[in-house]
Amino acid sequence: MTFSWFDIGFAVGLVHVMGIAAAIHAVMTVRTSQGAVAWAVSLATMPYLTLVPYLFLGRSKFIGYVEARRARNLLMRTRVGEIDWSGISPLAADAHPEFSALTDLTDIPFVAGNRVRLLINGRATFDAIFAAIDRARDYIIVQFFIVHDDTLGRELQRRLLARAAAGVKVYFLYDRIGSHDLPRKYCERLIAGGVMVHEFTAAKRGLFVNRFQLNFRNHRKIVVIDGNEAFIGGHNVGNEYLGEKPPLAPWRDTHIAIEGPAVIGIQRAFAEDWHWSNGSVPPLNHTPAEVDGNMHCQVVPSGPADRLETASLFFVTAINAARERIWLTTPYFVPDEAVFAALRLAVLRGVDVRILIPSRPDHRVVYVATQSYAHEAVRSGIEVYRYRPGFLHQKVVLIDDRAAAVGSANLDNRSFRLNFELMLLTVDHDFAASVARMLDNDFADSTPIERDALRSLAWWWRTAMRVARLFAPIL
């Protein structure tokens, strides 16, 4: 087949028309002005290079997903009934007005009567999770972004199969993109052993166009035992999270164990994801056992179907609540304007603002963009430290000496607008003190970025940082 110049010209013109149409779509649908401008300019001027990436990466909401997800959640709650929180524990929202917006934002109340403890690094985390799995009597919830078929993954598999054989209901949910290399045989063995297994994916059957939307991922890490005990945080399932995979070893991460009524809010986040993935409603315990603790907790699930940008607003709320210090740790520091402005304002209020980031990359483009924002933060009076011993992956927030949050959300646009995340805010002086001690040790193993450090960098490195920053809306 031969093509005339007319055919070639027509094809080129068609691509440009499609690029302009996509640019208009980006202006109308992309949430942030920076992202809209970046996509619109690139689609209009370089459609040959950007049309296909836009199909995969360009939208911050699923086509039809928001309505479908909300309808599914409403259906799920209709089937199981709304949770009567008032009979579980006294509400604590009135005691913490600075955080009251989070209750309205999430539709999950601030609850008292909880006990939360830190699990520092992989060994402590998975020792605690495996011990809890072994004592499960009714059901086990397991949800991770990444699951590897390695030593740790097979140990998890073995324990889940053992509990399923003992008659315990086991629910296993993994993200299709994060666990893209998980062998089919891994899940087949779980299913053969009685474990209920599903993948979370943006694509729903019958919505073909959603199959292009690979940019949306379920980044939550949740384990729940019998509705009484939950585990959330930064760890996925893989040997690297135990610090056994150079060059990122030792891996620095943090999880938490939760007992009390806050577990119910964590379960609800899982139940909505499970219901979306397969249409069924898992029968879960809504009356957790009472515990010897009175920590006040706010569960904060977030995702692209939220009516507001929950994750970003969570960080803004936490930063604005600080009066003495706000310390944050994140593997990726690519904040939006709202969070960055809140950090700058905290500095102007005299708050001790510190951010801890890695000194080595796991994703190079994000790492380079992080360096650009880190240097800008330092010039704004924010103290930024690079963690030296290994890769830093924890997501922790410390607010003064009274509150702390741990979960899965990073300080980047992906967590703010593209991923499903889960954080837990705990208001308790003792818990905050334990987080402060942990972070003090981390800062002692870190190097601060000096205010004039940017000037000493090579021109090509400064250029690379600026170029990487152009991709901030999708990083």
From TrEMBL:
GO molecular function: cardiolipin synthase activity
Active site: H219, K221, D226, H393, K395, D400
UniProt cross-references to InterPro entries, sorted A to Z: Cardiolipin_synthase, CL_synthase_A, PLD-like_dom, PLipase_D/transphosphatidylase
Coiled-coil residue spans: none
Keywords: Cell membrane, Lipid biosynthesis, Lipid metabolism, Membrane, Phospholipid biosynthesis, Phospholipid metabolism, Repeat, Transferase, Transmembrane, Transmembrane helix
Primary localization: membrane
Membrane topology: Multi-pass membrane protein
GO biological process terms held by the UniProt record: cardiolipin biosynthetic process
GO terms under cellular component: plasma membrane
Gene3D superfamilies referenced in this protein's UniProt entry, alphabetically: Endonuclease Chain A
Subcellular location: Cell membrane
Domain PLD phosphodiesterase: start-end pairs: 214-241, 388-415
Domain of life per record: Bacteria
Catalytic activity, reaction form: 2 a 1,2-diacyl-sn-glycero-3-phospho-(1'-sn-glycerol) = a cardiolipin + glycerol
Pfam families noted in UniProt: PLDc_2 (PF13091)
Transmembrane segments annotated in the record for this chain: 6-24, 36-57
EC number: 2.7.8.-
Enzyme class: transferase
Protein family per UniProt: Belongs to the phospholipase D family. Cardiolipin synthase subfamily. ClsA sub-subfamily.
The protein's role, per its UniProt record: Catalyzes the reversible phosphatidyl group transfer from one phosphatidylglycerol molecule to another to form cardiolipin (CL) (diphosphatidylglycerol) and glycerol.
HAMAP family: Cardiolipin_synth_ClsA
Name the record gives this protein: Cardiolipin synthase A
Organism from which the protein derives: Pandoraea terrae
